[in-house]
Specification:
By secondary structure, the protein is an alpha/beta fold. Helices cover 43% and strands 11% of the residues. The chain has a domain at 58-296: Methylmalonyl-CoA mutase (TIM Barrel, Alpha-Beta Barrel), CATH 3.20.20.240. An 8-stranded parallel sheet has the order 4-3-2-1-10-9-8-7. A two-stranded antiparallel sheet has the order 5-6. Strand 9, helix 8 and strand 10 (252-254) form a beta-alpha-beta unit. The longest helix is centred in the C-terminal third of the chain and has 23 residues, at 295-317. The radius of gyration is 21 Å and the shape is globular. It starts with a helix and ends in a 16-residue tail after the last helix.
Length: 386
């Protein structure tokens, strides 16, 4: 790239904006503490191209009999007989207890063994799951944290801290038995960078134990930015979230129903077919790291990785995830960020069409009605206006 492109660009913008102080005007605020430049001409330190575990991204549907012939991967909440040559993501601990996979079966657990309310690991459940012949036995679920309003570095720091707790109890060999359930929000490039950053810091943690592991990522669409009375926009938002996850190299993707408080056979089918369109029309489910080399994405990936790793170290020095959970510190940190985020929605800094932009109702609830600093719970931004 020519060395004079940047100055020429700056001069043009100064002329257009009629000011010498262009960077204060072009600066874009974000709640993640990530520095975003208006123009990128290089990346200081290229990041490693980390592969995903699966060759092709699993496109996961909630099980329905009508989909059985056409869908390869299902989430199961109840037992279904004779599901052969399928990838099965088990979402019910009672069901997991009754499953005895055959050698050729592909079973994955989406069951988190952490009891967030008591601040403990359910040891009996963990041992039962580890005894199963699953491809991935233990789920580290941080989708709740995203839906509760946690910052990106909080989500990833918590994921690493929970991983460390498991490795300390069950041995570092558990690292290649984990599946990470991560909710992908609406900040398109940041969310791509989030998954890429998580691969980097998980790989870094695995090296501390003498391994060179890449995390298995099960990415699902967020509930945080969805609205009850805005189905069409929900569909658009979740499609972009799926694209973020696929481009970042998620191993499996799942679209939550775009009808927030109800479900129909038709809505379940449409939610799944969002993935089909992206995979087979855009062909973005086969890349390991499609955004590698993008100056912008590389830069924010590095920043997110550094912030998340620093938070993980801070948590470990303070006693670890479970100890901080018992003290209420984790809950308070997530609460503080979630409330600040909700204020941005209330003030219109975060725009949701049909909710705070061109609203369909004049209902408004207070932040105190929605959030509690003592509890990690999912809250949708739109609940304030519903």
């Amino acid at each position: 790239m020519s060395a004079d492109i940047l100055p020429n660009w700056e001069n043009l913008v100064k002329k257009q904006l009629k000011t010498e102080d262009i960077y204060s005007i072009l600066k874009k605020e974000n709640l993640e503490g990530i520095h975003v430049k208006p123009f990128y001409s290089e990346v200081q330190k290229p990041l490693a191209n980390l592969p995903k575990v699966e060759e092709n991204t699993h496109l996961v549907a909630r099980y329905h009999e009508s989909l059985e012939e056409d869908v390869f991967a299902f989430i199961l909440d109840h037992n279904v007989e004779n599901l052969e040559q399928k990838a099965i993501f088990v979402n019910n601990k009672d069901l997991a207890g009754h499953i005895s996979p055959k050698e050729e079966d592909q079973y994955f657990s989406l069951i988190d063994v952490f009891d967030e309310n008591q601040g403990i690991i359910d040891d009996q459940l963990a041992k039962e799951l580890l005894s199963k012949d699953f491809r991935r036995n233990i789920c580290v679920d941080i989708s709740l944290h995203q839906n509760a309003g946690a910052a990106i570095d909080q989500q990833l720091g918590i994921a690493l801290a929970k991983t460390k707790e498991l490795a300390e109890v069950y041995g570092p060999e558990i690292l290649n038995k984990l599946i990470f359930r991560i909710a992908v929000g609406g900040n398109y490039f940041f969310e791509t960078a989030k998954l890429r950053a998580f691969k980097i810091i998980f790989n870094q943690l695995s090296k501390e134990y003498g391994f060179n592991e890449t995390p298995y990522i099960f990415a699902e669409t967020s509930l945080r930015n969805k609205a009850v009375a805005d189905n069409e926009n929900n569909l658009i938002r979740s499609t972009l979230e799926l694209a973020s996850a696929m481009i970042a190299g998620a191993d499996a993707v799942f679209s939550n129903n775009y009808l927030v408080n109800r479900s129909t056979d038709n809505s379940e089918e449409i939610s799944f077919k969002q993935q089909i369109v992206l995979a087979y029309e855009s062909i973005i489910n086969v890349f390991e790291d499609a955004s590698n080399g993008s100056y912008y994405v590389e830069d924010i990936t590095r920043q997110i990785a550094e912030k998340s790793w620093a938070l993980f170290i801070e948590m470990e020095e303070a006693g670890g995830y479970l100890e901080l959970l018992k003290q209420g510190i984790v809950q308070k940190k997530i609460y503080d960020h979630a409330v600040e985020e909700q204020k941005w929605v209330e003030e219109g800094k975060i725009k949701l069409i049909g909710v705070n932009l061109y609203p369909k109702s004049d209902v408004k609830r207070s932040i105190d009605d929605l959030y509690s600093e003592k509890e990690i719970k999912a809250v949708r931004w739109a609940e304030m206006f519903e």
